[in-house]
Amino acid sequence: MSAYILPTSELDSIISTAAQLIDHTGTPYAEVFRFAFGHLGYSLGCATDWHSLALSLYSMNADAVSQRYGKTTAPDYTPAISAEAISTPAQFASSIGALAYNCAEGDVPTRPLYLALIAARDLIREITAEHTQQLAAQQREAARQARQQRIQQGREILAQLAPGAEYFIVANLQRDDSDTMTDYFHTTTIQTHVLATSKHGKALFAEMRKAAARFEHTRHLGTGCDEYTPRIIACQDYVDSSGHYVHKGSASRWHSDVQDANEPHGWPTFSTEAEAQAWIDSRPEHQLTIHTYDHKREEITISHEWHIHRSSIEHRQKWSMGRGYFLAAGRTYSGWQVRKTMISDDLLEALALGQHSLGQAKITPQQIATVRPEWDAMKEFLGLPPDTDTATPAAAAAAPAVQIVHNTDKNGIEIHFPAKPPAFLLDSLKKLGWRWSRAAACWYAKHTEAAARFAQTIAETYTPSAA
């Protein structure tokens, strides 16, 4: 090991800290030093005593270094007790340890002054360890109390939004921590979002799909969604030029130019069949009949066709070590999953942190009055009758100022406004589940009877001048 003479500024800091600071129990560090050095004649009752102790420690440090490396000339030293003190007990204990380490040479470790320094170091370490434990305990208790407050807030939110609920439908973002080389399989949940509540424990996929549609990151797991992969397949069995038997329905080996270069396997995956068909329609023209040779060098003709392969996102793993019933697309060890689970403290805490979609269900115009104060103004603007009146609203103009488009490819309905609608109408569209498409410059929703009726009502009553 090596040794050196401590900088005089560091020794000043040690003495200044011992003379000025008080530990967490209210005991001055000076008492610790008096206990350790008092039997050597250092009463440490005034600045002169502290100067004397500082010079003795400095002299002992210089003597130890001289015994380690030969005679060493130490710089002149005048203690400065008013120097800046060390801020934390841990730093103070570390500085005393450094001084003791650099004095542990030759016969110095047998001297009473060195033994007193070791005693002071050990006492300071005990005080520091006790302080650290108390701080850690205080932090744990504060975290526990904060968690209990969040759980209580979550219970209050649940009682307000879904009284009587016993189960949650949740979305979990999974991270794959598996290592196939060591046969280790594990996933970690890095984000949780409460989608909906339920009063029964049955794992119904229809219920989970409906809840998944409420959250942006799980809409691809909603009603009517699965995994659809378009690809070109062979329409017959044949033997290729290498002698390999190719079954009917196998992926084509001659249409790589049709594939998507941005996809890992060439063929993309979509949430709906309509999206997959739209992708097929966007591909360049291609020849589906291939003329080639078999393993006997005889010319053969192979027919191909487009095929959309459907994979269900509904997973049923009710076996030993299975993961139950859940919704997931792609690899089930990563990405978003939707499942039903019992209400727990962790999920109640998620409610308090705002990680939920409760109270955000799609609502009807009759229900808007309870959540949108502007509903009355919107009815007047659209020319709608009162909620209790079944009369047909009068048309605002002979020709509708709004265009309604039924998108058959995506099974959607679109509203094209000639100008930007008022703010309360935009807010109401969002509340009713409509979304804005920047590319098509329209508001769109899934085609349902209610959506079509609402769009037609707006088309019949909205005019640019009314805005």
Mind explaining what this structure looks like?
The chain is α+β, with helices and mostly antiparallel strands. The chain is built from 12 helices and 14 strands. The protein has helices spanning 8-20, 29-37, 47-69, 89-101, 112-161, 205-212, 273-282, 345-352, 365-368, 375-382, 423-431, 449-461; strands at residues 167-176, 187-198, 227-234, 238-239, 245-246, 289-293, 299-311, 314-317, 324-328, 335-342, 403-407, 412-416, 435-437, 442-446. A 5-stranded antiparallel beta sheet has the order 2-1-10-9-8. It has a 4-stranded antiparallel beta sheet with strand order 11-12-14-13, covered by helices on one side. A 3-stranded antiparallel beta sheet has the order 3-7-6, covered by helices on one side. α1 (8-20) crosses α4 (89-101). The protein is elongated. The termini are far apart.
